[in-house]
Write a structure and sequence with these properties.
One of its GO terms (cellular component) is cytoplasm. It contains nine helices and ten strands. It is α/β, with parallel strands linked by helices and 225 residues long.
């Protein structure tokens, strides 16, 4: 994938430089330019078409939210990560309506900023490789991890780690028997069957009969559609 071109819009030159240094440590990122005012940003956007903008809300001659509205009105294919000291709900709601990829409060914790950028890069890679999407793809791109039952809610003999391994199998296999599943996760056939039957009871899988090479029927598990 080509480099992600980033513009930083931040009125404080020192903070902008800290953001630049932070992002410069991340592979795949290219800092195209920095702007310290609303008008400087407008001028940059007339000649540049960045992939991502790190955008402050409070600028000396305007609002970052106005810049966000302008980008959306002109249908520029630019993603926006808002970095702001604004802690009011109205600003957050307007940012969300504008489709920001993240909203980070000042003072910035740089590990949090790096995490956000890495997730953004991952989502772009995922998007580029997708054809038809599934709900799990959408959840991943919107940074919403799939909710599973906690360990305390799981029945005896079922743990989250092994359960997630079994779930992962059905992302690359359309149909599996208990024996095949056990071989793939490094568990016995009996253990694999226990997890597969649990996923049937939770509505994630369904079973049908499959006939092996010797003609003996086996339960074959498929993802419920």
């Amino acid at each position: 994938m080509s480099l992600i071109r980033v513009v930083i819009v931040e009125d404080n030159a020192g903070i902008a430089e800290l953001h630049r240094r932070c992002l410069s440590q991340i592979a795949g990122i290219e800092i195209e330019a920095m702007a310290h005012s609303y008008q400087e940003a407008i001028t940059l956007f007339e000649v540049l078409n960045p992939d991502l903008v790190l955008l402050d809300v409070q600028l000396p001659d305007g609002s970052g939210l106005d810049l966000l509205r302008m980008l959306r009105a002109e249908k520029q294919e630019t993603d926006v990560l808002l970095i702001t000291a604004a802690r009011d709900v109205d600003t957050l709601q307007e940012a969300m309506r504008g489709g920001v990829v993240d909203y980070i409060l000042k003072p910035v914790v740089f590990s949090r900023l790096k995490e956000s950028i890495h997730k953004y890069l991952d989502s772009r890679v995922t998007m580029a490789g997708l054809g038809a999407i599934e709900q799990s793809d959408v959840d991943a791109m919107l940074m919403r991890p799939k909710e599973h039952k906690s360990t305390a809610q799981l029945p005896k003999g079922i743990d989250n780690v092994t359960l997630d391994k079994v779930r992962e199998l059905f992302k690359s296999h359309t149909q599996l028997t208990a024996e095949q599943s056990g071989q793939l996760i490094g568990a016995s056939r009996t253990t694999a069957r226990r997890y597969l039957e649990y996923l049937i009871s939770s509505g994630e899988l369904e079973a049908d009969l499959s006939y092996g090479t010797v003609g003996r029927p086996e339960r074959a598990y498929v993802k419920r559609t």
